[in-house]
User: Fold this.
Amino acid sequence: MWVTILTVVQLLSGLLVTAIVLMQSGKSAGLSGAIAGVADTFLSKNKAKSVDAKLARITKYAALVFVGLTLLLNILSK
Assistant:
């Protein structure tokens, strides 16, 4: 019973990690980002960085939960 519950939680945490990673903006925008970056204001850049920083922090915690559940399920399945 516990293995089934933990497997469902692991599946949900994997989906959460995937969704959070997809919501983050790319770190290298390339040439198009350099050209379009001129139009950005100071406030919009700081807002984007704070949102990206929050998403990065959430990604770390969600990934730790996923890895922890993976190890726990591996131990329980033996």
